[in-house]
């Protein structure tokens, strides 16, 4: 605390080398000193702090609050925190392009498919990404040499036409309007919020030198102006008051011209056809327009990523655990066939509640709730770790003095508050509690709690009870099931309601069209959704079993579901040897196990699956704590396995509740012992519904080697130009699952699956690998594909003649990198087999996008979702590349999200109709249900396999904190048991 006291005598103007804490979001605050007055109005219309904090503090929280005892001179800033290193937001996704306006004129059919480079050629084409102001810029050489697949035709024609609306809003621009790009450097580095305040004051005070322009700012290093400034290089000084009674802090601002450009290049790109095919996408222009249209919402809402949140959209809702949910909207400028479009969508996310640190902890942590009753007790080491984990990296402000400063929490003090001392100015030691009593007349109440440590290097302490959580901080912790349910309920809007919300944003006072920035840059944003024509594909005829006979069925219900009341699964299994293991449960619950065994066996029989009516051993009942002890759990599993003579086909585990030991159970069963397991909860056994039993039976059948359904008309008969009965094709899916956002060290897990039966293509083998933390590129893809091809060769005695590879979880900014590295790995895997180089199609599957489709009222009821099979491949899609939106499922709740399929590489030369038909038909073959799923099954299975692989990770050191600078090498996953390796145990 001596550091703090010394700083009370210093001026902030000498802090040029100081490092400021990151932003927080106070809303409106007034600071008045005797000589000067400064009022800061930040137009966030957000949560009004409803708390009086009347729990003995005697004062309020926030700016301008006064202590009940008296008014004290404000403290000067505490030792500064680590700076927020400024960086420029990545430029608009590099694969984006423009094309002709297809709702007026469609491009001619183009069958000039790209010729795939040989592996050696691919290697030569690696081009480094130079950086411009922190943003990666794709070189022209790479753009020209490594082209993404172009659309093969003018779009599909199969299916029933339907008129739809999409949440894309046309953005018209003046091609002659110049945009001037300036780099802005502020010293010392400010937070984003301070940077915006500096920019605002800079414009107000230096308007003539800025040619009276109203520039836009991305909050980091970039300014765009519609008018050129008077000078190419500007050096300015801006002062901002930090607190009422301290000198203003002076920031040096350097502005220099980086580039100037107009809209002629994107206009040519948009309005011309294939003759401009080699023209690169003008990334900088797209990025500039994105910043322009974000300026208005940024001033009035809480920005978070590409989304904005505001209480004016419905207020904040407490979801428990110290979190509140806020409604908002997403926006992004995208190049489409109709021109530039602004994609706007409804969004909901969780934020930390802006309340005192202690009441926040009382809401978030159970052991803190009765803190007022046990003030004399200190936290245990485990409790202290939990508190530190909850508060680490949180931004807080203090309420015992007026200041604009924000502090980042780096940890907790080792000692409790009453034991903290610091050297005074005269060299003597002073007690922290005495300092606050003498300086502010405040008695620390929670003497046995540690203080917040707000500096990495210096001992700088703040008592918890004097700190408040800053507003506008996104909740990055893992939400509980209850919190998740509340968030989903808030975001679950039917199409009519979602459409109304989006329309309100576009016409409201806080949306992207609300400010004057668009007019300054001569932009016109349509406030009407894009009208387009989609198509509804016909459902395929399906093949089911019927007592040994094949039965066909076409799902013509609106939701495209079918039932198995009069049918069997297409391929059933025989389960002679199985067992039941119970974890926890009341005596009454355990008494239902016998009935469950009988009912499950009967339900399997109705579906054509043979499950022996008796288990090989009597059900085994264990307490729940066994799941929390991996060694004990393994011994129990081995015991039941050995009691069945080492030949146990299935283990059904019934649990009292969800438990983290589920991960250990799966890991031990599948890697140490070799048992296929199926888990369920006692709460479902109590209901014992026919649907629950049927779902369980379908999953068990699939895990043991059966399948639910097959296409009646095989793929070779539906796509005869590409597929033949005698030439097998493999469908592969890949996904990477990453650890929780607050996890700094756990490895990511990659999974690849591949079909191994043809032409049914409904059984998949899997491979899983751990890899570098948060690495999106699949590092061991070559070996994984090789192993799957070997399994395919073993099953069908020949290698696939074609490979169709579906890749999940790739953002548009990663398209080129993923295609380059992973396509190369797939080709290398093929080259390991003699004289083998099959044509490859590589398609990215995107779920997390914000395009939504709405039926028009004359087509369907306005509150209905679009029908399964709805496909869109014009107007809102990429103008030149091969992509489409397909909604293959029926949306029961909320608004259906179509899946975006983007073909990056296509040596198989699919037409639009062929690719869309392939994907839609495969969606009917998923083994776990009797309806089409929302995403193509290879990707669905890859996601499930990657999740299963993440359960295998060793969590023994998960409580340790590891800095990002020392991420350990990923330890390999345990090897799967040989007897389940080729089964779909993960589904």
Write structural notes for this entry:
By secondary structure, the protein is α+β, with helices and mostly antiparallel strands. 25% of the residues lie in helices and 24% in strands. The chain contains 23 helices and 44 strands. The strands form eleven sheets. An eleven-stranded mixed beta sheet has the order 38-37-36-39-40-44-43-42-26-5-41, sandwiched between helices. Strands 6, 12, 13, 14, 15, 16 and 25 form a seven-stranded antiparallel beta sheet that branches. It has a five-stranded antiparallel beta sheet with strand order 8-9-7-11-10. Helix 14 packs across helix 18, helix 15 packs across helix 16 and helix 20 packs across helix 21. The protein is globular. The N terminus is likely disordered.
How many helices in DSSP terms? 23
Q: Please report the total strand number as a whole number.
A: 44
SS content category: alpha+beta
- Share of helix, binned: 10-25%
Gross geometry: globular
Strand fraction band? 15-25%
Overall pLDDT level: 85
The spatial strand order of the largest sheet comes to 38-37-36-39-40-44-43-42-26-5-41
Q: Kindly, what is the distance between the CA atoms of the first and last residues, rounded to a whole number of angstroms?
A: 57 Å
Q: Give the low-confidence spans.
A: 1-145, 957-964
Report the sheet with the most strands, covering strand number, pairing sense and barrel closure: 11 strands, mixed
Radius of gyration: 31 Å
């Amino acid at each position: 605390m001596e550091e703090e006291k010394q700083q009370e005598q210093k001026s902030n103007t000498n802090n040029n080398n100081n490092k400021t804490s990151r932003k927080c979001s106070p809303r409106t605050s007034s600071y008045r000193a005797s000589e000067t007055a400064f009022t800061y109005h930040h137009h966030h219309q957000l949560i009004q702090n409803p708390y009086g904090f009347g729990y003995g503090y005697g004062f309020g929280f926030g700016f301008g609050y006064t202590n009940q005892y008296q008014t004290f001179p404000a403290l000067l800033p505490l030792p500064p925190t680590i700076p927020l290193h400024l960086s420029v937001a990545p430029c608009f996704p590099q694969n984006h392009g423009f094309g002709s306006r297809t709702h007026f004129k469609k491009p001619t059919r183009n069958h000039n498919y790209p010729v795939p480079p040989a592996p050696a050629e691919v290697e030569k084409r690696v081009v480094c990404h130079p950086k411009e102001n922190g943003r990666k810029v794709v070189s022209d050489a790479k753009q020209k040499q490594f082209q993404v697949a172009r659309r093969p035709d003018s779009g599909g024609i199969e299916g029933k036409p339907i008129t739809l609306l999409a949440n894309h809003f046309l953005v018209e621009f003046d091609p002659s309007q110049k945009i001037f790009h300036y780099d802005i450097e502020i010293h010392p580095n400010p937070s984003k919020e301070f940077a915006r305040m500096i920019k605002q004051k800079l414009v107000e005070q230096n308007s003539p030198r800025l040619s009276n322009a109203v520039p836009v700012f991305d909050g980091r290093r970039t300014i765009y102006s519609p008018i050129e400034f008077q000078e190419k290089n500007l050096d300015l000084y801006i002062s901002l008051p930090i607190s009422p009674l301290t000198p203003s802090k002076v920031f040096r601002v350097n502005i220099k011209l980086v580039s100037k450009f107009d809209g002629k290049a994107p206009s040519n790109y948009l309005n011309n056809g294939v003759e401009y095919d080699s023209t690169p996408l003008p990334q900088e222009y797209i990025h500039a327009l994105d910043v322009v249209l974000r300026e208005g919402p940024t001033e009035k809402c809480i920005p978070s990523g590409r989304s904005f949140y505001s209480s004016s959209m419905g207020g904040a809702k407490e979801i428990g655990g110290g979190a509140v949910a806020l409604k908002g909207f997403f926006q992004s400028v995208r190049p489409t066939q109709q021109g530039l479009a602004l994609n706007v969508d409804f969004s909901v996310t969780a934020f930390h509640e802006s309340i005192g640190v202690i009441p926040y902890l009382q809401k978030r942590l159970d052991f803190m709730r009765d803190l007022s009753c046990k003030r004399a007790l200190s936290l245990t080491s485990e409790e202290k770790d939990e508190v530190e984990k909850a508060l680490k990296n949180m931004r807080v402000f203090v309420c015992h003095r007026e200041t604009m400063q924000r502090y980042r929490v780096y940890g907790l003090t080792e000692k409790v508050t009453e034991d903290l001392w610091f050297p005074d100015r005269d060299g003597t030691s002073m007690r922290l509690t005495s300092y606050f009593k003498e300086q502010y007349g405040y008695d620390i109440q929670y003497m046995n709690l540690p203080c917040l440590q707000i500096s990495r290097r210096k001992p700088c302490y703040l008592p918890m009870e004097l700190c408040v959580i800053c507003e506008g901080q996104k909740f990055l912790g893992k939400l509980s099931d209850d919190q998740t349910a509340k968030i989903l309920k808030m975001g679950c809007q039917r199409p009519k309601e979602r459409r109304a919300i989006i329309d309100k944003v576009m016409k409201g006072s806080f949306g992207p069209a609300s400010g004057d920035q668009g007019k300054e840059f001569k932009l016109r944003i349509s406030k009407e959704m894009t009208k387009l024509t989609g198509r509804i594909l016909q459902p395929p005829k399906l093949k089911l079993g019927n007592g040994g006979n094949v039965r066909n069925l076409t799902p013509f219900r609106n939701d495209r579901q079918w039932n198995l009341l009069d049918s069997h699964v297409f391929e059933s299994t025989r389960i002679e040897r199985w067992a039941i293991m119970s974890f926890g449960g009341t005596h009454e619950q355990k008494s239902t196990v016998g009935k469950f065994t009988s009912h499950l066996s009967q339900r399997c029989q109705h579906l054509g699956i043979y499950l022996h009516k008796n288990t090989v051993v009597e059900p085994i009942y264990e307490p729940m704590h066994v799941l929390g002890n991996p060694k004990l759990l393994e011994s129990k599993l081995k015991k039941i396995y050995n009691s069945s003579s080492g030949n146990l086909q299935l283990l059904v585990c019934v649990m009292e509740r969800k438990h983290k030991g589920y991960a250990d159970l799966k890991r031990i069963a599948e890697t140490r012992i070799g048992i296929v397991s199926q888990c369920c909860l006692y709460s479902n056994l109590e209901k014992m519904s026919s649907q629950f039993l049927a779902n369980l039976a379908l999953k068990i059948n699939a895990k043991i080697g059966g399948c639910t359904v097959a296409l009646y008309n095989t793929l070779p008969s539906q796509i005869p130009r590409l597929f033949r009965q005698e030439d097998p094709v493999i469908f592969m899916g890949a996904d990477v699952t990453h650890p929780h956002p607050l996890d700094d060290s756990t490895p990511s897990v990659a999974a690849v699956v591949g079909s191994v039966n043809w032409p049914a293509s409904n059984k998949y083998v899997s491979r899983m690998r751990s890899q570098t933390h948060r690495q999106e590129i699949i590092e061991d893809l070559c070996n994984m594909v090789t192993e799957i091809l070997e399994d395919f060769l073993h099953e069908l005695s020949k290698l696939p003649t074609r490979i169709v590879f579906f890749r999940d979880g790739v953002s548009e900014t990663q398209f080129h990198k993923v295609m380059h590295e992973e396509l190369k790995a797939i080709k290398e895997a093929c080259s390991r087999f003699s004289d083998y180089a099959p044509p490859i199609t590589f398609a990215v599957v995107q779920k997390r996008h914000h395009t939504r489709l709405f039926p028009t009222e004359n087509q369907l009821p306005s509150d209905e979702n679009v029908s399964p099979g709805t496909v869109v491949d014009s107007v809102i899609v990429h103008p030149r590349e091969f992509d489409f939106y397909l909604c293959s499922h029926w949306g029961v709740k909320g608004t259906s999200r179509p899946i975006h399929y983007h073909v990056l590489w296509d040596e198989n030369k699919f037409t639009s109709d062929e690719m869309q038909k392939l994907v839609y038909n495969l969606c009917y073959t998923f083994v776990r249900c009797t309806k089409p799923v929302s995403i193509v099954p290879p990707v669905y299975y890859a996601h499930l396999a990657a999740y299963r692989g993440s359960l295998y990770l060793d969590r023994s050191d998960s409580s340790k904190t590891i800095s990002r600078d020392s991420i350990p090498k990923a330890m390999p996953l345990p090897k799967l048991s040989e007897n389940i390796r080729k089964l779909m145990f993960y589904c």
